[in-house]
């Protein structure tokens, strides 16, 4: 009798876990993967696909990008862009790790970064806010340059 009861529990446990998890929010990484999957399959949305940073990356631009990043992004993405900011710790999904953008060619990174900042993550069930109405194009391009440079002036 105990052997049958043990077998029933062992068999039912995975089903119970699956049912319990079906009510939970999406895993922390799913929104980040959804954005990347959309880009891989369809590219950056048309209004952003041809966007390129019109100004050169100067020390002044990187300094401005650092200031805008510190003010608007670091609390969630962390000072170094790893997705480890204090306000982002409890967000589901977790804020994206932005370090990989420094290794992405500028012609591919520019439209992706601008789109991500401008539109935020609402369509991916992410709490990333859309900044297209609160940041100027100059500020968004400055942050883009700062990210592509590998977040060189990260605050403490």
Secondary-structure blueprint of this entry?
Elements lengths: L1 H21 L7 H13 L3 H4 L9 H14 L1 H4 L28 H14 L17 H12 L8
Keywords: Electron transport, Heme, Iron, Metal-binding, Respiratory chain, Signal, Transport
Cofactor: heme c
GO molecular function, one term: heme binding
Features:
single chain; 156 residues; mainly alpha; Cytochrome Bc1 Complex, Chain D, domain 2
Measured distance between first and last alpha carbons: 62 Å
Tally of distinct domains: 1
The run of helices and strands is HHHHHHH
Under CATH at level 1, the class stands as Mainly Alpha
Cofactor: heme c
Keywords: Electron transport, Heme, Iron, Metal-binding, Respiratory chain, Signal, Transport
Protein name: Cytochrome c
Domain Cytochrome c: 60-151
Overview of the molecule:
- By secondary structure, this protein is mainly α.
- The protein has a single domain (26-148), classed as Orthogonal Bundle (Cytochrome Bc1 Complex, Chain D, domain 2), CATH 1.10.760.
- 53% of the residues lie in helices and 0% in strands.
- Helix 4 (59-72) packs across helix 7 (137-148) and helix 6 crosses helix 7 (137-148).
- It is globular, with a radius of gyration of 20 Å.
- Keywords: Electron transport, Heme, Iron, Metal-binding, Respiratory chain, Signal, Transport.
Question: How would you concisely characterize the structure shown here?
Answer:
This protein has seven helices and no strands. It has 156 residues and is mainly α.
């Amino acid at each position: 009798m105990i052997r049958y009861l043990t077998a029933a529990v062992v068999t039912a446990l995975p089903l119970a876990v699956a049912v319990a998890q079906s009510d939970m929010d999406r895993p922390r990484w799913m929104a980040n993967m959804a954005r990347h999957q959309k880009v891989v399959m369809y590219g950056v949305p048309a209004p952003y696909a041809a966007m390129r940073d019109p100004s050169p990356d100067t020390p002044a631009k990187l300094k401005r990008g650092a200031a805008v990043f510190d003010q608007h992004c670091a609390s969630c993405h962390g000072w170094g862009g790893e997705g480890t900011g204090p306000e982002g710790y409890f967000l589901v999904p977790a804020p994206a790790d932005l370090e990989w953008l420094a290794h992405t060619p500028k012609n591919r990174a520019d439209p992706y970064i601008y789109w991500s900042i401008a539109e935020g993550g609402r369509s991916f069930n992410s709490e990333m806010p859309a900044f297209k109405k609160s940041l100027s194009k100059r500020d968004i391009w400055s942050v883009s340059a700062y990210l592509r440079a590998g977040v060189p002036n990260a605050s403490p």
